[in-house]
Amino acid sequence: MAVISFPSDVRERQARCEEELGQFGIRTPATLPPVVSEIDVVLRSAPEVARRAMALLVVALRAESLMCPELAVADLREKRPLALRALTPKEQAFLNDVAPDQQQITNFVWRYEALWLLAWALGLVEVLCYPSETCDVDTLSKTFLELDEEALLKDAKLLPTETLLDALDLHFRLHWLVRQRQDGKPSDGETGGSDLDPGVVLERHHALNWLVQYEGAEWDDVQTPT
Question: What global pTM score does this model have?
Fold first, then answer.
């Protein structure tokens, strides 16, 4: 059997992530592959990440508002003009839909979790905690709504590549574990993680795969295989 050779940084990253997961009583199979190397990765630019974050805020706010007093799309267009320009086709369709169905609304409310990940990647929130509960939406919304859009784009900076790839490797393994549980297929190679929130893990993995340009996919088409 051929042995696949990986750059040293990916194996070191895998070992760090497995050690971190062990602190939460989680063990995943050593056969799970590592994620992309620092040598090969091409990250999205900081301004591109900032634009994506602004767009996510708009659609998440809109979705949340549909569960309570509705926030007029016209207000969003006035207050967040640059964010509106960064919407994907699916996001634009959602904003233009006067009566989206409940599943669409729920899906876009979950985008707060992807936004938290990107906010962390931009250094706007300090902690990317263990994904056992949903993020602090009020703090997240306040953080972005208080930022001037043009200043955010101008000043945007990403965390070190090593830090971002560590998060990717960690959430790749957590997502594998979540899917094993959802499929009813626990194995001898995994333990722990019963307190994970599947929605949080999925959204973070989606955001991270977009950030590293996994398979070159744009936001609406990002996949999260495990």
Answer: 0.92
